[in-house]
Amino acid sequence: MTDDQYQRIVKNQTILDSKLDGIINELKVIKSDVKVAINNQQLLEQYEIDITNRLKRIEK
Q1: What is the Cα–Cα distance from 10 to 18, expressed in whole angstroms?
Q2: pTM for the complete prediction?
Q3: How far apart are the C-alpha atoms of 33 and 36, rounded to whole Å?
């Protein structure tokens, strides 16, 4: 392997590492967004239960 080939390999590896870091960061953001969405859904479901219970008490 020549020095030029080695330098191209190192450069390509650096580019790939950078792209992988970007992908990992994007996945972390997506994971966080999914957690927020799940928490919001759980809150909505709890509010629905609370409202249903209140309506049942009012109807009595």
Answers
A1: 12
A2: 0.70
A3: 5
